[in-house]
Amino acid sequence: MVMADTRGAARRRQLVVGNWKMNGSRAANAELLAALRAAGPWVAEVAVCAPSVYLADVALSLQGDSIAWGAQDCSPFDAGAYTGDVSAAMLAEFGCRYVLAGHSERRAMHAESDQLVADKAKAALAHRLTPIVCVGETLAEREAGQTEGVVKRQLSAVIHTLGHCISQVVVAYEPVWAIGTGKTASPEQAQAVHAVLRSQLMAASEHAGDMKILYGGSVKPDNAAILFAQPDIDGGLIGGASLKAADFAAICRAAH
Ligand code: 13P
């Protein structure tokens, strides 16, 4: 068993990120953001990751607010013949703060490899965006006892590609079997994997104690506090519940 490193826990400000996935409309987004603005600010840092077509709207709606915003993906390239893609430079021009890299839905549905995810994280950092690198095992991998091997392999590609800049990324542990299923990892299961990730980061960077590792997968208002109380869990990456203002606000309140 990997011992958790708790030295940095007290000084890490937690982060709660809403991943809207491919949901929303201009009207629904405006309503959701207005409600969130009214509910905040929170002790924790808060951000929303919207579909790219809405990002300019979101930036406008959040002007002057402490809620940050991010994209759900970016190209590993700066510009060129990459139809359909959006570059980190373009996102940065709008004031984007975060970009998800390697969400399991993209790994599975767009065949994103560990190296491509690492290259996307590198492109994001080059434009001063903070990549939120997602890792996580499938149910079959967990049942085969491969959880640790899978998440370490996914993270090691990013560590190898970014070198000492690894300390500038946020990591999100999202067990695939917990995403959108209502089956949350227990706080103990999640903490155990977070401790593995923390120690892998410790071996790569002296600043790993300051890095945020988020948990994602069926986080709801009623389970957020216990998850966020784990020593190596520094906030959450929230899917379904981030579309409901009251639920997302309650989850943000549960973080510190
Ligand atoms: P749910 O919160 O809907 O399980 O989604 C988690 C997720 O994939 C966030 O990126």
- Average pLDDT confidence is 96
Give the termini separation: 27 Å
Our estimate of the beta-strand percent is 5-15%
Number of distinct helices: 10
Oligomer class: single chain
CATH class: Alpha Beta
Q: Could you tell me the CATH topology label.
A: TIM Barrel
- Placed side by side, the strands forming the largest sheet appear as 1-2-3-4-5-6-7-8
Low-pLDDT runs: none
Do you know the CATH architecture?
Alpha-Beta Barrel
Alpha-carbon Rg, integer: 17 Å
Largest sheet: 8 strands, parallel, barrel
- Would you identify the CATH H-level superfamily? Aldolase class I
Q: Which hetero compounds are present in the coordinates?
A: 1,3-dihydroxyacetonephosphate
Structure report:
This protein is an alpha/beta fold and 256 residues long. It has a single domain, classed as Aldolase class I (TIM Barrel). It has helices at residues 26-39, 55-61, 88-93, 104-109, 114-126, 139-143, 147-162, 187-204, 221-228, 245-254, and strands at 15-19, 45-49, 68-71, 98-101, 130-135, 170-173, 213-216, 235-238. Helix 8 (187-204) links the parallel strand 6 (170-173) and strand 7 (213-216). The longest helix has 18 residues, at 187-204. It is globular, with a radius of gyration of 17 Å. The chain starts with 14 loop residues before the first strand and ends with a helix. Bound molecules: 1,3-dihydroxyacetonephosphate.
Features:
TIM Barrel, 8-stranded parallel barrel, 8 strands, 14% strand, binds 1,3-dihydroxyacetonephosphate
